[in-house]
Amino acid sequence: MNFIDLLMLGFSEALTPTNLGFCLLGALLGTLIGVLPGIGPTATIAVLLPITFYLPPLAGLIMLAGIYYGAQYGGSTTAILVNLPGEASSVVTAIDGYKMAQKGRAGSALAVAALGSFFAGTVATFGIAIAGPTLSSFALSFGPTEYVSLMLFGLLAATVLARGPVLKAIGMILLGLLLGMVGIDASSGEERLTFSAVELFDGIDFVVIAIGLFGFAEIIENLENHEARGVLVSKLSRLWPTREDFRRAWPAVLRGTGVGTFLGVLPGGGATLASFCAYSVEKKISKNPSEFGEGAVEGVAGPEAANNAGAQSSFIPLLTLGIPSNNMMAMMLSAFIIHGITPGPTVLASQPEIFWGLVASMWIGNLMLVVINLPLIGVWVKLLTVPYRLLYPAILLFCCVGVYSINNRIFDVVLAAGFGLLGYAFRKAKCEAGPLLLGFVLGPLLETNIRRAMTISHGDPSVFYERPISLVLLIATVGMFVLMVLPSFRRTREVAFQDEEA
Amino acid sequence: MSAPRKAGGAGDRPDLLTAALFVGFGALGLWAGRDLTLGTASAMGPGYLPRIVCWLLIIVGVTVGGVGAFRDRQEIATPKLWPVAVILASVVGFAFIAEFFGFVAASVWLLLVGSIADRDSKLREVILLTAGLTAFGALVFIVGLGVQMPIWPF
Fold it and tell me: Which of A51, A177, A178 to mutate to test the interface with B (most CBs of B within 10 A)?
């Protein structure tokens, strides 16, 4: 089958009424949580993961993917209209978008953001369609040695590119690896680190950790930082951008798409990093940088295109190599595993309808977002006035039912509450919980491959640097580590992430 | 978030807490895995990699703590015990009640108790919300999605 046939297969899968419905549901849910500050896509997907078990595999994946990219749209709407970025990835959009809104050009900013996102989403979707088969045929030649090096590279890169202190992130990954080892050891059948609790013999469920660390801990933290939200909605003007706005926005959208697609593929990349980089690129190459921060249309178009492109292209490593590059993708990986599918090169060959259906649904979902969102902006903004005290009980109920339904037992819920407490402690200690999830999902894969590689080489670690692909990956890993230690690089990195934390 | 920073004094409290957590979990892992077979590099036993990971975790923890001890003093944002205690109690209660008395009782408990975590909650709203969400949950999760949980206690 050639490229067009495969794409047609994908569209025929994605266009069935069920899948179309779940695509719409995901996109709407994503927009909703993107609009509401205090609920992020990670928490939402954690809550909905157990529910996808009851859906057909493709429908569940389509919905979860829709939530992820839908959240990017929703986040930018509130960033522009009320200066309240719903998601981390739209923090930069608020800088110029809100200024534009104050000058009475809110409609123009929203339209540029939506159209730019749609364009970027389209390009990135084709990127996945093209890169997928190429990369995965390359990955078929990977042995356990290459996988070990690739995972080490991915894990370290994820800590360097993500925000927060690197050492803490490495510690969180190690803790995730350790938690992933709990349960019966696959090769010897011995139970380990279970404290003789029968409930732990099957290992800790991903959903328990995700809901504990992101669901419960987030609710507790939000209740603690209780602050009055003053919502001042700017007046909506005409929606269609002026010819001048179009002329200035297009090149920025193109650059943003490029930056976003590239950064999304890197481990630890994704929507947030992409939008920050795109903003600084626009600011650097602009002829009059002083306009930035005062309502420059490029400052909206670039980052918005980039965060959407980044959100889409971060699916590439997951779908082709089976390696998640950030915590969102770790969630997606476990959504695949719930249905007994291990994403990677073999899925593309054996179940092409899953890969191509998902890719096609992303494009359809992006189209839906443009069509639905522009007319619905008024409704989304009204939702902002819903107070948190009415929202969190609903989230709490979804979390509890979700955790309980995995195995129908008390133990999982109590364990999730424990992880909630742990997650709260980590927030106090200023540790990001994302790397822990990454370590947890990659842990079993990493261990199996290390053991396999070492058995094949009779315990000789030199295989890792004797095989060329593995060597290149290891050199890159070491190079990154050295870069981290260099003070000049560290300073640049700190500056780059400073705005984000503000 | 800007934690209060006091002039003079050393010790980054969040870093020290991180160190305690990392070292604690590393030590716990070593202790829990003390009887596991180590094996050799070519035939790793179940205890080989866990032990390496635990030691790495301890090393990272000690480094974070060591560096943090000499940084400027920085406080941990003051924890408020009320939301933590209430939310955790409501969640644990939910699990036990769901097991023995069914979904409706558990959901009512969770939402009523959970709501007192936020001091802004108003009684009328809470009652309406509880009724609405419980009905919604029973219909969607149990009737619709087929989650294995009785609806009523009898």
Answer: A178
AA identity, residue B144 = G
Tell me the mean pLDDT in the region A370-396: 80
Interchain proximity B91–A420, CB inside 8 Å? yes
pTM: 0.83
Q: Which two tokens stand for residue B14?
A: 């969040």
A207 touches A334 (CB < 8 A): yes
Nearest to residue A166, comparing CAs of A502, A463, A431, A459? Answer: A431
CB A358 within 8 A of CB A189: no
Collapsed DSSP state (helix, strand, coil) of residue B6: strand
pLDDT in tens, A76-101: 887 888 777 766 777 788 888 888 88
Confidence tier at A497 by pLDDT (50, 70, 90): low
Q: Give me the residue from A168, A190, A425 closest to B46, CB to CB.
A: A190
The count of residues in chain A is 502
Write out chain A residues lying below 8 Å of B77, CB-based. 428
The residues spanned by each domain of chain A are 3-501
**DSSP 8-state class, residue A199:** G
> Dihedral of the CA atoms A372, A317, A264, A1 (nearest 10)?
-60
- Say which residue, B60 or B144, is predicted with more confidence: B60
Whether B41 contacts A454, CB under 8 Å: yes
- φ/ψ region of A433 (left if φ > 0, alpha if ψ in -120 to 50, else beta) reads alpha
Give dist(CA A96, CA A483) in Å, integer: 33
Q: How far apart are CA B108 and CA A443, in angstroms?
A: 38
Range list of H helices, A185-325: 206-210, 217-224, 243-265, 271-285, 298-313, 315-321
The 10s digit of each residue's pLDDT in B15-67 is 999 999 999 999 999 999 888 888 888 888 888 999 999 999 999 999 999 98
